[in-house]
């Protein structure tokens, strides 16, 4: 009897504890992207030759993310040396600081810092300072968009590091900024040495030692608020569903959403350029949603065998031009897409045989560059879909996307009950009355038996 009396009050506490524990478990999966489950940036460190006090290595950075790229001002890579290593020289990149090299007489190292930070060289670097896949200003394309430009490399000569596989120590605490936060890098792992096929393809050589570092992206770590939102409209309903209010912040909360500018402000150019703030912090046009990017999906025309959609991307950020932008859209009718106008298209198929996710991006030298906020700060295209009579419908918001990403960030969608409905669809009122009746009945029964 005593045990049962004590055990009853504990059960709600246990349930609450398990609930809180499950919530903390969910937060750890913030870096997992269901539309790109294997996406990551892999850093490979290949020791090519030994030197009198260390080694020469080629460091290669591969962007295996399908639709997330690194834009200007580019990536920066950091780590912490395991011993007292120094960098004697670099080709294809440079460290941001030299550090204290006062102990060295005569030949001074390129960098003596315990935790160096490396950045890419700019295009136009002299050829004697370049290696393959370097000198792009730190810009990396996404793998699906341009795999040939989704790789970066540099060469580093390391001293005071050991001259055998047993004496060399792997660096620690790798960090990757692109150019801001968002990436988390795991520990370096020694792997099978990389093999290199010679240009004549008749001989293969291999690295003396290789280790890999894997870095994954989390939108929650990159910024506190979302970066884009979605608005909807259709030909069959006059209602235009705007982006949710305060989707990316509120005008009254400057600490959360940053500053905004009214487009009718006198001397707008001086307001935008004269604040002296970091160009990475957004300065957006004052709107209800306060998002730097808005994607508008408009169901435009209904044909007998086809239907057409117009997609418009608008930039509200006065400090940012988006080059090589991309859009990822999830919609069940992408399996029947027929034609795109002025956008490139690629199916991603994150769920195997289910073709409902498409990657869209601009045509090179035409609309792949999205200007900052203003009259020219938008790009648009139209998509033509063939109807599958077994699944096609305009009812209950089927014609609108399930999810939209811009440059790899998940955009805020309007609530499903706000989607434009067909004019003859009176189910909203019917459902509301039915729900009200059921609720009233439940309340009545509850109080009757209370």
TrEMBL record:
Membrane topology: Lipid-anchor; GPI-anchor
Localization in the cell: Cell membrane
Position of the signal peptide: 1-31
The entry's keywords: Glycoprotein, GPI-anchor, Lipoprotein, Membrane, Signal, Transmembrane, Transmembrane helix
Domain spans labelled COBRA C-terminal: 227-420
Membrane spanning stretches: 431-449
Cellular component terms per the entry's GO annotation: plasma membrane; side of membrane
Swiss-Prot/TrEMBL GO biological process terms: cellulose microfibril organization; plant-type cell wall cellulose biosynthetic process
Keyword Transmembrane: yes
Listed PANTHER family: COBRA-LIKE PROTEIN, PROTEIN COBRA
Family of this protein: Belongs to the COBRA family.
Identification of the protein by name: COBRA-like protein
Organism: Pisum sativum
